[in-house]
Structures are given as structure tokens and as C-alpha cells.
Amino acid sequence: MHSTLQKWLNELEEETLIVQSSEINEEARGNMVLFGVPKNCLNEWGQDSLIEFIVGCRDLYRTKCGNTSMQFYSWYDQQSGHLRISAVSTTHNRLPFGCAVVKCELHEIVKGLFADNSRLFSEKGELNVWQSGI
User: Could you state, in order of their start, the residue ranges of all structural domains in the chain?
Assistant: First the structure.
């Protein structure tokens, strides 16, 4: 993993407290972390390193959520230039988006970071989100 991404993961480990709430939006906002992704750093970091970083974030959330079953998810917000991660309890049975969501593979999210078109939305206008149970 690239040293910058490893540093971010280390900071996330020190600072993250998982919020659990019966209100899905409160939980999602409380667990959301945004990472600014400068386009000029992407080639230096590489796709494999970004995948390893996001998987590391998921694994960190898994250890921090205790015995609560949660859904970890990640997406790229091209307008703000942020890679976003969060988690919500599986009891909500959904993710907290106001639009249709399509579950995609992690490499698709990362590939979108390197493309001019981030593939933020599918051809049908659904938000591309990588999800993993934790």
C-alpha cells in the first residue's frame, strides 16, 4: 500500500468510533469518512494500492463495530473529489441513499477514480456503491 494511504489508514484506526443508531441517516453520517483524492496522485498510488486501502478501511470498521452486524460501503463522489466510506447496521435492510443504488465490484469504483468519467452512476442512473458485510 502506498505510504500516504497507509498513513490515512493509521489515522482512521486512531480516530474512528463506530456510531450505532436506530436512525439510519444518523448512523451513516456518524460513520462516514471522506478522503480527498487528488488526480495527480493516482498514478503514483496505483489501483491495487487503492483497493488494498479500501479493504483495509472495511477491515478496520469490522474490528471497531464489535458484535453488531453492519454493512460497510464505499463510493466515489466525483463532484467533490472524495472517496467516501461508511457503515450502517444491517437491521436497516438498506443503504441511506435517496437514489437507486447498484452494488458493484470494488475494482469498478477504483477504476472510476482513474477515468475521466468516474462511473459514479450506472447507465440506468443508479449510484455505483461497493458493499461488504462486516
Answer: 3-133
Residues 15, 18: Cα–Cα separation, whole Å: 10
Residue 131: the pLDDT is 97
Please say whether the beta carbons of 41 and 98 come within 8 A. Answer: no
Helix (H, G, I), strand (E, B) or coil at 35: strand
Let me know: does 104 contact 128? Beta carbons within 8 Å: yes
pTM over 0.85: yes
Provide block-wise average pLDDT over 10 residues at a time, the chain (134 residues): 96 94 96 92 94 98 93 89 94 92 91 70 75 96
Cα atoms in the 13 Å half-sphere on the side-chain side of 33 = 19
Structure-derived torsion over alpha carbons of residues 25, 87, 30, 81, reported in degrees to the nearest 10: -90
* Rounded Cα gap, residues 77 and 68, in angstroms: 27
The size of the chain, in residues, is: 134
Who contacts 15 (Cβ-Cβ below 8 Å, separation ≥6)?
none
